[in-house]
Every structure is written in C-alpha cells, then in structure tokens.
Amino acid sequence: MTSPRSAPTRKRLALLGSTGSIGVNTLDIVATFPERFSVVAMAAGQRVELLAEQVCRFRPRLVSVRDAAAAAALEARLPAGLDVEVRWGTEGAVAVATHEAADLVVSAIVGAAGLEPTYAAIRAGKSVAVANKEPLVMAGALVMGEAARQGVQVFPIDSEHSAIFQSLAGHRKADVRRLILTASGGPFLNVPRERLAHVTVAEALNHPNWRMGPKITIDSATLMNKGLEVIEASWLFGIEPSRIAIHVHPQSIVHAMVEYIDGAVVAQMGVPDMRGPIAYALAYPDRLPVPLPPLDLCALAGLTFLPPDHERFPAVNLAYRAARVGGTLPAVLNAANEVAVAAFLEGRLPFAGIPAVIERAMDLHVPRPIETLEDVLAADADGRRLAEEQLAGLAPSGPPSPIRAAT
Questions:
Q1: Rounded to an integer, what distance in angstroms lies between the CA atom of residue 384 and that of residue 53?
Q2: 15 CB contacts (<8 Å, ≥6 apart)?
Q3: 3-class secondary-structure state, position 314
Q4: Rounded distance between C-alpha atoms, residue 28 and residue 22, angstroms
Q5: Which of 6, 316, 349, 370 is the most exposed place for a label (fewest CB within 10 A)?
Q6: Which of 72, 57, 63 is nearest to 14 (CA)?
Q7: pLDDT 10s digits, 194-237
Q8: What is the value of pTM for the model shown?
Q9: Residue 156 and residue 164 in contact, taking contact as beta carbons nearer than 8 Å
Q10: What is the C-alpha to C-alpha distance for residues 89 and 70, in angstroms, rounded to an integer?
Q11: What residues contact 110, with CB distance under 8 A and at least 6 apart?
C-alpha cells in the first residue's frame, strides 16, 4: 500500500518582466494555481497601469520599474497603505532578482537588459527559469559556469528549449547526435524574396501562430530568433552549435526534437501556447493540469518540415558565425540586432536592412575572450555603437510598400 503524496511546498517567485507576454502568462499560471505559487517581487518597464493592477492582485513585497519617473507614476496608482517597496533602474531589477524570499527567479526581461539581474540572481544562489535568450547568448559561459558553482538550475521557458529539455529526460547526453529546433518561418515564409525590402512594420508584427512582444516578433520574422536559440541551446545543453539544426515547421506543433545516435528521434509536441512551457519550468519536476485545449492531430492537414532558406533569412548564418567564433561576437550580434530591430520598428530602416546592419557591425568588431561581466557589457556597448554608426550613414528608407503573400 502506497502512502498518500504530500502537498508540494508553495514556490515563491521573483518575476523579471511582469508586463511582457511571458510575464503576463506567468502570472496567469500563478493565478490558476495559487496553492502552488506566489509572487514576492516583480520588475517591469514603463507599463505602469498594467503593473499597478498586477501589484494589487499579486501583492509582491518589492517592485521595480525602468526609471524614477515610472516609479513615481506607479506609486501614484497604488492604493494607500499597500505594503510594497518601489525601486527603479538596473539596481531595482537586481534587487528583485536577488530578493531573499524568492525560491525561483523568472527571467523574462526582453533584450540585453535582462543579463545583469539574471546573472545577479544566479550569483545569489537562485535557480532561474529563463525566457529571454540574451543572457545565455551574450554570456553563456559566465551564466552557466556560475550556475554550476552555485549549484543552482537554469530552466528553459522558451518553447523550443523546453521541448529539448523534455526530450532529453531519461536519456544520456552521450547518446545525442544532434538537437533540432523548429521555426514557424514567420509571416514572410512564402512572400517573394524581392518584396522583403518593402514589408511594413504591421506586416512583420503579424505572426501567424504566436502572440509575442514586438522585438521577439520581428526576430521571428527575420529568423534571428532561431539563430539566437542555437547559441542559447548550445550553452543550456552543452552541445556544440554544429550539432544543432533548424527545421522550418509552419504549423508550430513540434517544438523541437532530439536525434540520438541510434537514429531514434524524440519530439515534443503541443499546441502553440506559452503557458505550457512556463508551467513546466515553474513546477518542475511536476506537471500541472494547465487549462489548454488538447492537441488534436487528426484535425491537422499535416505536419511539414523544410530547411531554412539562408538567402531569405541571412540572420541564421550570422548567428552560426557568432557561435563558431565565440568570445564577444555573440554579444555584438545581439546588440546590433536590438539596435537594427528598433530602427525598423521606428521606420528608420527597411526590413531587409536588419541583417545588413548586424553583419557590418560584426565585421567591424574585433572579437576577444570573455572573462567578466564587464567584458560582456563592453562588447554590448561596442555592438550598439557600430550598429548606430551604420544607421547614421543610411538614407531614410521612405514609406514601405504593401505586399501580398505569393500564391
């Protein structure tokens, strides 16, 4: 006769990026399973109206925003007598990430801004669930090395890396031949190549399968997100980039696969909803009854896989190049991409100019080894400077022309 299973301890979370898409979905999981999770600290940017609602509902002890102006605006929206400390800036985000009461830190700040608080959390002995690619892309050796020294875990939240994590369970790393990341192909998979120079911001933000923030959505449209995921996967799972492949899979049902040396391929499948991988990272090793629709394979017309078109998506090769060279080059790749994507969203750069700006910044940078966080931050600053210099030399692109998908 087996004894009844004891109730799990309620896990206390620190959430970096609470108002972004991952943050909102994380709080949805917390609200669905209040007996499993609570939020003791959260950080966000400048969306103070939404953040105020989150603070009132989840009652964290500490909250941080981007700057002093956002902090003042947040405090003005919070009810009198609410027991919460408000801070701002990188220092505030680091305070959230290292909060003494937190059992797990969810790292979902978009871009390089997530590096310092994520690294600080690990140095403070916190396990982290990473949704943003940038900490591992920019400083994978530092992050994973520190996690090993502190004896903490780094859980993936990205759907592809969560899928690999799940597909590796119960198997030996020595038996892995390669990892396969899938990509939807974004909104321009079937658009004539010559028209990519004229796509609009609205079209680039119209992802066919996922609802994400603007930066991540543009990365999906250029396939840079997949390149960044290759670098991230190599650090998360200790697999060299040459053994990590990308397959375009428009249905977004198979999230990733692991191929073993005997030819067996283990795939993780599911509906395209981030609440699944978020819940798995938060509750690991448990699985939660997340209220998602079941995967109905019989209703699908089919599952298709294609090799990526490297001429259509040159960002993929840039990421593999950065991964091969290593050192500071991945941080420069990431920084230049952030600058170029922002310029496209602001109408200062055509869509096809994004990889061109990144490539030129990489060409001009002299890679060097990374030994400290300061080395990473210096490389990030250099990548941004080089990308901005490329933008300064470009003429305005003019109003983009509408396009239609190829028939």
A1: 34
A2: 23, 26, 27, 39, 41, 42, 43, 96, 105, 106, 108
A3: coil
A4: 10
A5: 6
A6: 63
A7: 787 788 888 888 776 666 678 888 998 999 999 999 999 999 99
A8: 0.89
A9: yes
A10: 10
A11: 17, 20, 132, 213, 215, 216
